[in-house]
User: Fold this.
Amino acid sequence: MVSYNGLFPKCQQVLKEKLSKKFQKVCGVIPKQGHSESLEKIYTDLYITEGECVDVSTEHEVRQIEMASKKKTTEGEKTIKYTDIFKPIPGKDIIRRVMTKGVAGIGKTVSVQKFILDWAEGKANQDIHFLLPVPFREINLMKEKEYTLMEFIHHFFSETSDLIFSTDEKYNIAFIFDGLDESRRRLDFEHNEDIRKVSEPATVDILLTNLIKGNLLPSAQIWITSRPAAASQIPSDCVDKVTEVRGFTDLQKEEYFKKNIDDQEKTSKIITHLKSYRSLYIMCHIPVFCWMALTVLVSILTGGESDAFPASLTQMYIYFLIIHAKHISQKYKVTCNKDTDICDQNAILSLGRLAFQQLEKGNLIFYEKDLRECGMDDKEASVYSGVCTQIFREESGLYQKKVFCFVHLSIQEFLAALYVLLNFRRKSVKSVFPNFFRRERGTSQLQSLLSANRLHELHQTAVKLALKDEHGHFDLFLRFLLGLSLDSNQKRLEDLLPQEGHCSLDTKKTVTYIKKKIREAPNPERCINLFHCLNELNDQSLMEEVQVYLRKAKEEREDLSLSQLSALAFVMLMSEQDVEDFNLGDYGSNAKSDEGLLRMLPVVKISRTVKLQGCDLTDSSCSSLAAALRSNSSSLRHLYLTGNTQLGDSGVKLLSTGLEHPNCRLETLELQECNLTDSSCSSLAAALSSISSSLRHLDLSKNKQLGDSGVKLLSTGLEHPNCRLETLELQDCNLTGISCSSLAAALRSNSSSPLTKLDLRVYKLSQSGVEPLSALQRDPAYKLTTLE
Assistant:
């Protein structure tokens, strides 16, 4: 792909030197002027999996992390190293296009940086001759005009300006497009025109779609990274391999802290503290949060104040902001408050306003136009990004154009919550910023918070806002807003904004309101966030009731209320212990119902074995269970539903929508005594025929209305090549020898069937009726070994 005229070795070396210099350093953990760390020294391997996650989770990314922390490695799930991104997979000799997904701050960009550095230093992937990393945030800055592909490449890499790329050369080029979620260009793969010549001019979006499709430089390798919600912009037929960065495992968290702290005693104290607060330790799955926690906790230890370690997310972010505000003052040697060494409070407030105004738009990346729309001029933004480098960054693109961003979405949400609370406080405290807060334009959901005159009104509006968003996009914002309202945290805010004064805020009404909402049984995922909110408000009453309950012997336990069941789900999710075996019947009669199961659904998702025998469930519960089976975060492998006589055919039909889903990994399904008829067999046959079928053991015994026609329908699934069933139980159903003939025919039709055990203990079956199956059992060409 490169015209080789002696320039290739020289250009490659210049490019490697440039990339090595650019990517060998990262920002230091504890901010110091001019301080940076060697990436090689502090890099910690991440947990990266290979394989498609079919559904994109629309949950708030922190919620995804909380669920992922409980997810177990699934059978067949393959982990890979960042160096092997382009390594072939079974069935594909050449991997040209790779999509790497992961939530914000999970380590995608650092993995890219390490990949580039290893290549530039000659340590890995030397079969690539030219590695060209182009972040989408810089592509956004290109002018709206037409470029040839060569002009596009030269635009970013002047080192290649003497080279001519074509489609018929032998040298390998790899592009890395980092941050698809930050792209502001629409990649229309369906309607963009096709171009095949590198000399043909086109708009940037057309160049990108043709490069990814393979119309331009068809042998070039392409690595795209993206937050999950944006990954679908690239069609599946334009992706050869999917990987997912899941952040740090528990062992990798500890390795990270050990690499970044020289003092072993400090390291031990920090790890012990984080482990003692589960919500903080779970957040450490996100490398950016590890860095934040390290910044805060090392600073506190250095000051000899280990007793003041933060115990909640809100406290962690308050400390983080205070530490960097002090750093600003020291770095720029400006006049500050003599008690706190903190200055330039307008910078914090301006960033809060920006965070607030952009949160509802979902923007993590800002450009000068966005800042002007939020009331910040370019000079002001540059000053703030210069002094708040660990909170708000400015990155220079080509031609000195600027890109601004908060270091992580959670910091943006924290500052937005801070802005809302300070806006509320100014109404009851004589503010030193009387002209700073102004009436926000528009009538957005977030802006409605600014009209509240009483704290409980503000909180109730925010709770309603969070519950209304079924995907939880305001969950973390709500946690921060409530945590910042706590009296003890208000006092900490005096360190950040001392002249604002302390405003005592009573949160008792808010606690009562949240408990009322928990009783009303909202979406179970939103309910879990309400317990996080109670934690932020230092109310542990419901969780303590559950802990007392769990300490009792089973025979001494009284029924749990529905609110307590939700608290139980939260306690189990936050526990260090994996939930291997969950039995709903262990928690009283209220639990044995559709409502009880709904409350415990988050626990169902993280359990390998779920026992729901005799729980009076209806088809409504099957809809919930199907949703759990479809979930990316589901660990469910064995499901027992025996004795739910109201479940019926409609329930099995709903459940089968989960069984057919590619995310489903269920291996055992027990449906004894569920009042099933032949109709259920049609739904189950479709599930067994599904390309993603994973069911190994199916028990349909004691369904008296299930007859020969049902078995005939079920046999269409058994004879399908996708069927993985090994054991089928049909005891005490309404079967005759006709069913045996149907089953035998299906197994002979599917010579690859793994079915080895059939249990047909049925009163009406004679020996002559069983003969077709007995003959199959005697035939060594077939796998059927057990016939009862």
Remarks:
- The first helix runs from residue 7 to 23.
- The longest strand covers residues 221-226.
- The radius of gyration is 30 Å.
